[in-house]
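Re: the 62-residue chain
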Amino acid sequence: MDISVGDKLLMKKKHPCGCDTFTVNRIGMDFRLRCDGCGREFMVPRVKAEKSVKKIIKPQGE
């Protein structure tokens, strides 16, 4: 997958706050994601994150 910092990810499952879009803050073995609804940041293993992505939304500048 071609995921980079600053991309928004539309996930298959929703966050407990009800939002299903997340912003990528860091990539590597783990992804640091920020919920666009409540602002909570958390780490997810790369394999798990790539499985649960429904759509990648690139920033407008690219």
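The domain at 8-57 is CATH 2.30.30 (SH3 type barrels.).
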